Amino acid sequence: MSSGSGSLMWFRKGLRIHDNPALEHASKASNFLYPVFVIDPHYMKPDPTALSPGSSKAGLNRIRFLLQSLVDLDLSLKKLGSRLLVLKGDPSEVIVRCLKEWDVKKLCFEYDTEPYYQALDVKVKGFASAAGIEVFSPVSHTLFNPAEIIQKNGGRPPLSYQSFVKLAGEPSWISTPLSMTLSSLPPVGNVANCEVSEVPTVEELGYEEAQQGEFSPFRGGESEALKRLRQSIEKKEWVANFEKPKGDPSAFLKPATTVLSPYLKFGCLSSRYFYTCLQDVQKNVKRHTLPPVSLAGQLLWREFFYTVAFGTPNFDQMRGNKICKQIPWNDDDKLLAAWREARTGYPWIDAIMTQLRKWGWMHHLARHSVACFLTRGDLFVHWEKGRDVFERLLIDSDWAINNGNWLWLSCSSFFYQYNRIYSPISFGKKYDPNGDYIRQFLPVLKDMPKEYIYEPWTAPLSIQNKAKCIIGRDYPKPVVYHDSASKECKKKMAEAYALNRKLTSSVSEEDLINLRRKLEEDQKPEVKNKRQRKLTG
DNA sequence: TCGCAGTTGGTGTT
DNA sequence: AACACCAACTGCGA
Known about the structure:
The structure is a single chain. The protein is 47% helix and 4% strand. By secondary structure, it is mainly alpha-helical. It has three domains: 6-139, HUPs (Rossmann fold), CATH 3.40.50.620; 142-179 and 222-311, Alpha Horseshoe (Serine Threonine Protein Phosphatase 5, Tetratricopeptide repeat); 333-536, DNA Cyclobutane Dipyrimidine Photolyase, subunit A, domain 3. It has a five-stranded parallel β-sheet with strand order 3-2-1-4-5, with helices on both faces. Helix 1 (21-27) links the parallel strand 1 and strand 2. The longest helix has 28 residues, at 509-536. The radius of gyration is 25 Å and the shape is globular. 46% of the residues are buried. Residues 5-143 form the Photolyase/cryptochrome alpha/beta domain. It holds the Pfam family FAD_binding_7. GO terms for molecular function: deoxyribodipyrimidine photo-lyase activity; DNA (6-4) photolyase activity; DNA binding; FAD binding. One of its GO terms (cellular component) is cytoplasm.
């Protein structure tokens, strides 16, 4: 192993062979290659205190998706004469140890803009440069380099989609062909005293066998990603006419979108390859939709949120976040729990939350519905609480995009029309009047007639009996009455906005406490009365 | 200061 | 399906 140059390829995201500049660089002019993935126990270890199966950071669906992606990567590496070396422990400690133990001249890994990786990379880069090891860390997770865009805009990220698109222009790499395959890889070097293993199974990580039907139907891995991409791209007319807001959030047998987001999240699919494929389709059709609603437009949304998130301190919180409206969200853990556990009493909302738990994925507009309901629409619970639930359970949860969308939906940033509230009753009904989506995910309501399935508490007792679903016993009564709750929310939003206008970005803790107290005092009795009247009447 | 645009609301009418 | 209307926000550029 001292006979030449060794390289360490550190996989984090970018779990793919195609269009992987870090892997390509690592394999070039190296006698040995160490392809490494570090399992961070914090991310992967079962947490028995967690609210659903999984670790403290990730639900079991995403852990399984990641493991499937690693198995697929390992298989691909093996076909190229290599393999994936799986190590366990704190990632920076493990990588530093490998660099000490192995004869490595180059350390290669994809650049990452998330705060978690930024902090991690500082440590690892620090050690590497002190040890005289070359570090190669290219930007290949996104179409653009967020740092470059921010620089181009005078040091601040563009805060609207249109200004981002204008500023970004064409990706710089567009005229050079992407490297889609590797012919072979250098052999794996001697691993010495570092303990390496094969990719573990979920059971080996300490999880119990999941029940049938609890599995996400989406399988991880580059092979699956490319297969799925091809299936979408084949439908040229569908791609050309794609308009995001027109999709049906209740479609579950055949989702209305590509469901490529989890593959983009882990880098099983290169966003740059996806983008080039979309361009090819566009060249070959007469007419096609455009950003922001087109499929390419969806990739640009991803870029937009990556850029804003990278350039905004405390992007993932309300406090200390310059672009976030300061709003006196309430701290009602009971309402939060009802939402999280799919027992709000609104079947449309509860079905979506069930799909989240079972599949780790739901349609974008379904996410809008439940996010709006939790925050500015009905429950007025802090968006950070909802963000945490999504972050843990979604198989595609992505730090920048998830936080960006919660800021958006809660009218805390980017979007401010807080009177536009998704109805937990009529929004779903307009796509799925029969309630098939609800019947799928909430079998307790499967025999409820369609006239009542979106508002089962209004069904006469005889109907409830016949459907074998008594509201209040077999399925909960609504936690709030939407008409009055949404009115109160609008009022609170108006007051909070007024306060933000007056104090422009300097709303103090005390201001918020006072406002919250004030709002609670004059609204509580009214809400209670209305709710009782409706629910008992 | 003003007018306008903003990925995806709800309701009611034609 | 397409449109007006509701009630009305902010940020941006002229």
